[in-house]
Amino acid sequence: MLLPFLLGYFLGSLPVAFWFGALRGKDLLREGPDAYRALGPVPGFLALILDAFKGVLAVALGEGMGPLGGLWGGAGAVWGHAFSPWLGLRGGKALAPAAGVLLAVDPRLLLLSLALFALLHLLFQRPRRAALAVALALPLFAALLGQTPSHLLFGLLLGLPVALRHLQ
């Protein structure tokens, strides 16, 4: 399953928000990874949509490479977004591509993740910690809904880069 992971990694590594920032004369590596805040609503929303699409596309292409290819391709896209070789292994928080991957793999995973994020954010008013908790809960959600060891590994591979980026 290395090929779907590498293809997903390549797709995820394309720094869309960074390119939008460069077009506006801003360096998102210095200003922070939040394209909406740094660039404004229109480019920020476009970056969000395109980053989520990278995750969906990685899953779709990976599924053509084998029964678990979509899971591996999606995980690769999230790792590529978080650790882009084009940005010196730096990157975004990986939430948008992770959302796209979850939507493509099983929309229930996305709904569970969004519900947990909303609840934790409402209770504690700490979005970074809420995102970290969701990333850490992904293996459990994936294992419960997918009910296979492959889904547990998928949840780990998907949640780990998100968690690492939210600990920084």
Automatic annotation (TrEMBL):
UniProt key word Cell inner membrane: no
Transmembrane segments: 6-23, 44-62, 68-89, 101-124, 130-163
Protein's UniProt keywords contain Lipid biosynthesis: yes
Pfam families tied to this protein: G3P_acyltransf
A GO CC annotation given for this chain: plasma membrane
Any GO BP: phospholipid biosynthetic process
Coiled-coil annotated residue ranges, if any: none
Entry keywords, A to Z: Acyltransferase, Cell membrane, Lipid biosynthesis, Lipid metabolism, Membrane, Phospholipid biosynthesis, Phospholipid metabolism, Transferase, Transmembrane, Transmembrane helix
UniProt GO MF annotations: acyl-phosphate glycerol-3-phosphate acyltransferase activity
PANTHER family, alphabetized: GLYCEROL-3-PHOSPHATE ACYLTRANSFERASE-RELATED (PTHR30309:SF0), INNER MEMBRANE PROTEIN YGIH (PTHR30309)
Name of the protein in its database record: Glycerol-3-phosphate acyltransferase PlsY
Lineage, top ranks: Bacteria, Thermotogati, Deinococcota, Deinococci, Thermales
